[in-house]
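Lab notebook, bench 4. The sequencing result for the construct came back, and we need a structural model before the next group meeting so we can plan mutations. Quick request posted to the team channel:

Model the 3D structure of this chain.
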Amino acid sequence: MVSPEGGGPARLILEGLALSYPLHSGALRAFEDVDAEIPGGAIVAVVGPSGCGKTSVIRVVAGLREPTAGRVVFGSGGLGAAARPRTAVIFQDYGLLPWKTVSANVELPLLLAGISAGARRSRAEAVIVELGLEGFSRYYPKRLSGGMRQRVALARALVQEPKLLLMDEPFSSLDALTRESMQETLLELHSRRGTTVLLVTHSIEEAAYLADRVYVMRSKNPGRVVARIDAPDAGGEGRRGPSFRAEPMFLEYMNGIRRALEGAS
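Done. Here's the predicted structure in token form:
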């Protein structure tokens, strides 16, 4: 989705959020009483086992589902309610159109927004280069590796210049080496762009490596947030980069997430 908006990165607060899916014999409560704060420009992860409602939270924040209760409050630099920020979503299956080339897939949100062909092409080419996809613009998704398809999905999201990027298990289908490479790509892009990121993942290690803050959800229906763990303070030295995985503070952070998950089961 594309919408005009200025200002800095998105800030959002989830207040008593709940979602139920209607069934013939009642309703399935996906999650309830979810409270969370996502600071502007931060990467925040939601971790929990399958079935706890993580993806449903993403769908509500994206505006794809109306919550059964509670609300999502958007703001930039303050707590006052604001219009929904320009938002892009990346789902687990990439969502690429197999009959369109890399360039056409990346341009698609701009086409839907009514942006002229010349402007679409210029913006798409710039982000394709940024994602290291130059030379593959005329390829179709079936000719690309999993990692490259994920780069195309990321390019299609970033071409919208979102204030908020929502990612639902974006790297789960990749092999370990490609997954680590994509994590580094995400951190590099985040460092340059400062986009607020809300990331859903099953991986404790991935959450600890990428996120400034982690919310842990329990597995029983309905899902609930049972813990918030903030990243350790690196004393101004910066904590990201491959070497962070070898630091004691990383293990401490990861173990804190693991203990919260074990307590929630």
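Residues 1-5 have pLDDT under 50 and may be disordered.
Will bring this to the meeting.
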